[in-house]
Design brief:
Chain A has about 160 residues and is mainly β. Chain A is built from 3 helices and 11 strands, in the order H-E-E-E-E-E-E-E-E-E-E-E-H-H. The chains are: A mainly beta (about 160), B alpha/beta (about 300).
Chain lengths: ~160, ~300
């Protein structure tokens, strides 16, 4: 039983370990639509772990994770991470199968998939995701942040309807 | 896959039960006063009862207005009917079961369990008649003795793959005298639900590894005591088979619980007509999870579908 939240190094190790063991998530991978599909692999009071299936066109939009730090391991395919840069183009990073990256709670990013080959990634957050910030640019060019439940991102209505 | 929108927690006293309660000469009983009907319970002050609240036609209209497809009627456990002596309880419980069984759509119902002599065969017959599971008072499941006494009943639920709904129980005689009407709901009920929550983790789960359980009123907020539980040497293991129903709580408490246990373990219940459901401003995804996805997973575990 864990007795404290995980740090970024521990989160990296966790997602890398799970990504390298497809038996733990293979049956939960769902490539069907352009929507991402989420399955929770684990949740306790200190960490939650998800497997996310990506199709061409999947896009999270820019978001933050409020008080949670996180790590992502790409298990299959490639996902693109964009980091917001004020007054300039977003910084684009390509994460390929075998890559692992992590971030602290101040991180703002967008993840998308832009390939005909479906992707699978393992995500861990500590403390477990609760609220998130969802960003959009208003017609006048100002940046807006909306506070949303993590369910909005990881348990979208479409998945249940 | 489309899930029904379900409220797992309402109360409705069907006609046969109203009749039996009004014929009684001791609590629990319905009494006709000049100003209308009142309910007399063992531990609480007399409370007015609006019989229109228990009209199935009016309730079905509210089901529509609430945007629901299905409502589960639970026995009004705080009335103390289940705790009456053997021979006395059965008449009232039969009236409840027979009355709610014929309500038809959109109503389903929880079975009640007579506590003087818990009878797994009687419960199994009710489950075979279509009752979704059993609703039992928190006070009857607050320690090892309760889980011993009710063990065969809980095993019957497991065999049937049917869930348990833990509901606050009756107030001890005299405990609420002279107190505001909300007193039991904020003291006895909260303490009882918290005790049952911990008791289930300690004695219930080891004995019933497959049982799915839902605690009413967010388990008296017991899961929010996790840090204190750990600080005092307890274990706080996650239990995917345990759900929490949200009736009487609003955005603050539900969001706090969501942070603690995650959205997948919370289910919608309103406790009508005792409480009026409130809209939770937590987003469409939470709304849908609580009313559609999670109740379906709780009631029918095979319905664990996710994104297409």
């Amino acid at each position: 039983m864990r007795t404290r939240d995980l740090d970024r190094r521990e989160l990296r190790e966790l997602v890398a370990q799970i990504a390298a063991d497809p038996q733990r998530w293979r049956s939960l991978v769902r490539h069907g639509t352009a929507e991402r599909a989420f399955e929770q692999l684990w949740r306790d009071e200190h960490v939650d772990v998800w497997v996310i299936s990506w199709m061409n066109g999947s896009d999270t939009g820019f978001h933050d994770h409020d008080v949670s730090r996180g790590a992502v391991a790409v298990a299959e395919g490639e996902v693109i991470e964009e980091r917001l840069v004020l007054g300039g183009p977003a910084r684009e990073l390509h994460h390929r199968a075998g890559d692992v990256f992590d971030f602290d709670a101040s991180h703002v990013h967008r993840m998308r998939q832009d390939s005909d080959t479906p992707a699978v990634s393992i995500h861990a957050y500590s403390p477990p995701l609760w609220r998130m910030g969802s960003y959009a640019v208003a017609p006048d060019g100002t940046l807006r942040r909306e506070s949303i439940s993590y369910a909005e991102e990881l348990r979208p209505v479409e998945a249940a309807a | 896959m489309a899930y029904d929108a379900i409220d797992i927690h309402q109360h409705l006293w069907p006609e046969p039960l109203l009749g039996e309660l009004s014929r009684r000469r001791s609590a629990p009983m319905l009494i006709r006063r000049a100003a209308g009907w009142v309910l007399r319970l063992r531990g609480e002050a007399e409370a007015p009862v609006d019989l229109a609240d228990h009209d199935p036609v009016r309730r079905a209209e509210l089901v529509d207005a609430d945007g629901l497809d299905r409502v589960l009627v639970a026995p009004s456990v705080p009335l103390g009917i289940e705790a009456l002596p053997a021979g006395e309880a059965e008449l009232l419980l039969d009236a409840y079961h027979d009355g709610v069984a014929v309500l038809g759509d959109p109503f389903g119902a929880w079975a009640a369990v007579a506590l003087a002599a818990p009878d797994p065969a009687a419960l199994t017959r009710l489950l075979d008649r279509g009752f979704v599971g059993a609703c039992i008072a928190a006070d009857a499941l607050c320690g090892p003795d309760g889980f011993d006494r009710l063990g065969p009943v809980l095993e019957a639920l497991e065999r049937h793959d049917a869930p348990l709904f833990v509901h606050p129980g009756p107030v001890p005689a005299g405990a609420a005298g002279g107190m505001p009407r909300w007193w039991p709901a904020l003291t006895h009920y909260v303490a009882g639900m918290q005790t049952a929550w911990h008791a289930f983790a300690v004695w219930g789960r080891p004995a019933h590894p497959r049982l799915r359980v839902c605690f009413a009123m967010l388990g008296g907020l017991a899961p929010l005591q996790r840090e204190r539980l750990v600080a005092r040497g307890g274990r706080a293991d996650s239990d995917d088979g345990v759900y929490l129903e949200v009736s009487s709580y609003g955005a603050r408490a539900v969001d706090a619980m969501l942070r603690e246990v995650g959205v997948d373990r919370l289910v919608h219940g309103s406790d009508r007509p005792v409480c009026t459901p409130v809209e939770l401003p937590l987003g469409d995804a939470v709304h849908s999870a609580l009313r559609r996805r999670n109740p379906s997973r709780f009631l029918h575990p095979t319905a664990t579908l996710v994104a297409a």
